[in-house]
Amino acid sequence: MVLLERVEEHDNNDLEEAIRPPIKNKIEAKNIQFGYQDVRILNDISMDVQEGEFLVLMGPSGCGKSTFLRLLAGLEQPNAGDITIDDVSLQTQAPDCGVVFQDYSLFPWLTARNNIVLALKQKLGKAKKKQALQQLAEDYLKLVNLGHAITKYPGQMSGGMKQRAAIARALAYGSDLLLMDEPFGALDPITRIQLQDLMLQISREQKRTIVFVTHDADEAIYLADRIIMFGLGKEGAVTTSLEVPFKRKTTNRKKLLESEEFLTFRDKVYEVMNKEILNQIDETSLVTADGAGI
Ligand SMILES: Nc1ncnc2c1ncn2[C@@H]1O[C@H](COP(=O)(O)OP(=O)(O)OP(=O)(O)O)[C@@H](O)[C@H]1O
After folding, report:
1. Which of 93, 104, 135, 261 suits a disulfide with 162, CB 3.0-4.6 Å?
2. What's the CATH architecture for 14-96+175-284?
3. Which ligand 1 atom minimizes the distance to the CA of 68?
């Protein structure tokens, strides 16, 4: 726990307390319903996320994955049902979570370090020593291998670097939960692989609870302890849970992706995905312009 050791050096109990990684962070969503006006998006969704679990959400476009993340982040309230973290309802206490989207969302006028210092200030309030916050921000940037870029502005960084900085900021900001909505969707394949490995390292070393949305089955299987597939039921989203049946990979990535167990499980994921997609097409697309079936 490099960061904690470093914080202890700062001799600042408040700061240490505030950024200490979580001890518990079990999430439970029970009978969640959510919609906009008359349109039902989520229908009776129940699931849990275990402490330290890497949960991946998949499913066809528009089925409500991002909406569900927004509920987990406390940005929207369910119309019915409840979400709790360690038995505390999000209706009574907002979650302490960091969020990473596809589009980096860094402040362009701040350096990488100051983007994180700002997040730490928002989290910790004022009256924290500036030097301690800067040091901590640098430590988070080193954690994501950006130690060489602490004074760079977003405009001077590649997409991969910006996304690393966004991950560092989310880690600094949220300690209960890390929510990631297609965070690597805009990156080239090599950078994407590097950041997947970074996320596995973070998940392993920091024991964060992570909920991650992707459309990429290989990425999902490589990262997840469990995959929850959203599908479009008649009344809104329904889910299927798929436990990844092999242990987290300290092994060689290429070997893993070519292994029998990986390929067999991928077939199963595709089967569920295809079923959901075909259901959606049945209900929406197989109709000609004059309303007749094809
Ligand atoms: N602010 C809003 N007002 C009305 N409808 C919305 C709003 N935001 C999202 N929706 C609708 O809610 C549904 C679910 O959207 P959401 O973004 O959660 O899906 P998704 O599964 O994340 O899709 P994708 O994979 O394409 O990102 C969609 O039909 C979308 O049009």
Report:
1. 104
2. 3-Layer(aba) Sandwich (3.40)
3. 18
pTM: 0.85
Percent of the chain topping pLDDT 90: 38
- Ligand 1: list residues with CB < 6 Å: 36, 41, 59, 61-67
Testing ligand 1's pocket by substitution, the residue of 36, 57, 276 carrying the most ligand atoms inside 8 A of its CB is 36
Going by CA atoms, what residue is nearest to atom 17 of ligand 1?
Answer: 66
Tens digit of pLDDT for each residue in 131-161? Answer: 888 998 999 999 888 999 999 999 999 988 9
Angstrom distance (rounded) from CA 111 to CA 114:
5
Per-residue model confidence as pLDDT tens digits over 191-215 = 889 889 988 888 888 888 999 999 9
Domain boundaries, the chain: 14-96+175-284, 110-173
